[in-house]
Amino acid sequence: MDPEAARTARESLDLAFQMSIILDTGLDRHTLSVLIALCDLGLNPEALAAVVKELRTEPSSSPPVLPPPSSFP
Amino acid sequence: MEEDDQQKLMDLVKELVVRLLCQKGPNSVPQDPGSPQFHASLRYALRILSSHLAPSAAADADAIAESIKRHLSNHGKSSHALAFADLYTKFASKTGPGSVNNKFGVLHLLKIISEDRISAWNEVNSPSLLPNLECLDAEVGDRWRVSHERDNGVSLVSKDAESFRKVAFKEYADLAKEESEVSEELLVRDVLYACQGIDGKYVKFGTIVDGYILPDMVRVPRATRTIVRKLCELGWLFRKVKGYISESMDRFPAEDVGTVGQALCAALQDELSEYYKLLAILEAQSMNRIPLVSESANSGNYLTLRRLSVWLAEPLVKMRLMAVLVDKCHVLRGGAMAGTIHLMAQHGDPLIHEFMKRLLTRVCSPLFEMVRSWVLEGELEDIFAEFFILGQQVKAESLWREGYRLHTGMLPSFISNSLALKILRTGKSINFLRVCCEDRGWAEAAMEAASAAGTTTRRGSLGYGEKESLESLVDVAAKRIDRHLLNVMYNRYKFKEHCLAIKRYLLLGQGDFVQYLMDIIWPELSEPANTIGSFKLAGLLESAIRSSNAQYDEQDVLNRLRVKMMPHSAGDRGWDVFSLEYDPRVPLDTIFTESVMAKYLRIFNFLWKLRRVEHALIGAWKTMKPNCITSQAFLKLQQDVKMQLLSTLRRCQVLWNEMNHFVTNLQDYIMFEVLEVSWLNFSLEMEAAKDLDDLLMAHEKYLSSILEKSLLGERSQSLHKSLFILFDLILRFRSHADRLYEGILELQTRTGESSLASKDKNKLQRHKNDGTLENGSWTTEGRKGLTHRASEFLRNMKQDLDSIAKEYTSLLEGFLSQLPVQQHIDLKFLMFRLDFTEFYSRLSLKKT
């Protein structure tokens, strides 16, 4: 990435991070960046949010038996 | 490319899972990518991600940002909202490589995560809320502060007071909910039922208290109880109004409630249906909750008791009005009811005024209908006795005076008295025309009136509030009908002519006729009353008419003139029972009623008597004129007898003169100043009369003025008596004078006979044929005896005459002294005539 793009990306991430603080999401910078990247790739934000919620509130419980993941675009 | 993306995706997801698992708690063990837990989580995550294929909300970053801002500001974090707005603006402005393409997605993500967190926090925190507020402060405050500390990197200042208030409100709401056994929703519903007069589950109608109350058993806070009580006043008022309406409807078959009452009930029912509509809307609102603007506000029912009280404020005012109305009109009916409602409508508040006006329009329509049909058709269709005009069955001749009258109790207050009188008169005229005059022309007059006033003759064209149109209709109708009536009276029934005829005959206006009648009827009437036949008198009347100018009068008029013999007692002479009468027929007898004709009779009697006296005096004059007989006697007699004769004659003459002066002046006064003047006034008023009432009044005035001025009124009783005594005296004088001159004539004949025995017997024959003497015993006596006789006779006569003269003088004096006391100004003219040389007043002055 060229430095221009890098700067833009950094600023965007900063802004997003500040917004997330205001909204009290409890996400740290790194997780947020991952999430933003996943959103950009087109994943459903509601699904991502659900993932976040589920994995956060799962205190060392045994993971449910899952069917093998189907391929997704 | 896609492979790359896929790989990137997997990497990122793995990264995410690692991160999240690391974040779980201080106790969590940093996971390594190889642990089975990690894989499980990963698989779970992938499953979740694959199941949601499309976002549920619209892909609009701005909308989401707005929603977040609103949410933040609603929760009291307005500074946060501003900061967020600022950040978002900057964030959104970043475009180009390296920026976030799916801004919407990011925002949406953040929003959902934050909401999830908040709900997670609420679940964690809520079980710990205790009713005890004091401990709460510290605990909650601690938690809030702790939560804020958990924020990574940035520390925000938390506003303790704000959060306290929020919590405090929540606490109060819970408290209130616990205190009331019954929820507000149910109470609202009950109140709505009460407003329709139905007992609800909790709110019932207490008959002792006479109101809708919540029984004390139901545990409700006092404020709620009060407001329920206030709202239920509406229910009490409603019951009252509805009770009145149903009671009236029950009384319909009994014909107890009039048309006005029925109209009132109908109008009230209309208002109540409006009220029902409002209640239906309120009920619908109380069932369904209306969604609010703020999405996450935890609201109860929309329709609270307070909101209900606002909605019901206006119906309460109206219902109160209706209840007061019902109270006042309970015992009234008809026009009185309309008048009361009208008085209540005089109110400054436009709402009340409008309401009352609406009600009144309906209520007064039967009344106006009655007025219209009365004024235009003379029909009085009033089954329930509500109209202010009452009619009763009378004979045709008293139809005008007594057939209809005003009933002021039923007169509504918006119809003034003069208008009511006009209405009465118009309808009365139509009925009068129809019944008494048998005239059909009034219908056209009514149509013209209606078209002129701009309304039709159909129903329902007048209304309350259109007072001007009512007045104009009545005015126009009254004018036309009155004019029509007067036309009929004058032209068809020739009222003026009959009045004039009465004046000419009954009031002795037709001089030549009266004179002739008097002449031929004189000897008849001197007989005792019971020997006189009315046929004879009628015949004499006919001949009198035929020989005077009266014969040129109309046949109709002459037909009505008749002789009337009044009921006589023993000792009456014809003079006392004779009178003329005039026969007015329908419809003129409305004006010439029995009492009016009796008055005319009185005047006639008086005038006839006066005429009789005058006639007597004229007769005396005839004998008293200087003639050969007296002069002959004068010459033949001796000196002293001559003196006696002279003085007697002179006395007679003087007395006659006085009496004549009196009678003539009285007659003239009556003729010119009483009769003619009154007639002139009456004719002027007849011209100016606008309707039959005016005419009646004018005629009354005419008659009463005649009575007053000719001393027949009540105040002149004593004067009247003395006048009659004077008349009697004059008649006595006449007979004395007759006797005197008879005696003189007898004397003359005898002396003439004795001295002219040898002389011209033809003269004697002539004289003899003139007089009505019997020359029996006297001719045999000598001259001396004759003289003696004559002087004695003359002396007697003189004495009689003296006494008459004395009596006359005293009576006349009495009469004249009483005259000035009279109130009527015209009697002063009589006084003036009688005493214009002040002879009598000087006489009386001398005496006193």
From TrEMBL, chain A:
Keywords: Cytoplasm, Cytoskeleton. The keyword Cell membrane does not apply. It comes from the Eukaryota. It is found in: Cytoplasm, Cytoskeleton, Microtubule organizing center. GO terms for cellular component: gamma-tubulin ring complex; interphase microtubule organizing center; spindle. InterPro entries: MZT1. Its main location: cytoplasm. GO terms for biological process: gamma-tubulin complex localization; microtubule nucleation by interphase microtubule organizing center; mitotic spindle assembly. Belongs to the MOZART1 family. This is Mitotic-spindle organizing protein 1.
TrEMBL record, chain B:
Residues 188-491 form the Gamma tubulin complex component protein N-terminal domain. Keywords: Cytoplasm, Cytoskeleton, Microtubule. Residues 756-781 are annotated as: Disordered. Residues 758-771 have a biased composition (Basic and acidic residues). GO terms for cellular component: gamma-tubulin complex; microtubule; spindle pole. Its main location: cytoplasm. One of its GO terms (molecular function) is microtubule minus-end binding. Coiled coil: none annotated. It is found in: Cytoplasm, Cytoskeleton. InterPro entries: GCP, GCP_C, GCP_C_sf, GCP_N. Pfam families: GCP_C_terminal, GCP_N_terminal. One of its GO terms (biological process) is mitotic cell cycle. It comes from the Eukaryota. Gene3D superfamilies: Gamma-tubulin complex, C-terminal domain. Residues 497-840 form the Gamma tubulin complex component C-terminal domain. PANTHER family: GAMMA TUBULIN COMPLEX PROTEIN (PTHR19302), GAMMA-TUBULIN COMPLEX COMPONENT 3 (PTHR19302:SF14). Belongs to the TUBGCP family. This is Gamma-tubulin complex component. The lineage of its organism: Eukaryota, Viridiplantae, Streptophyta, Embryophyta, Tracheophyta.
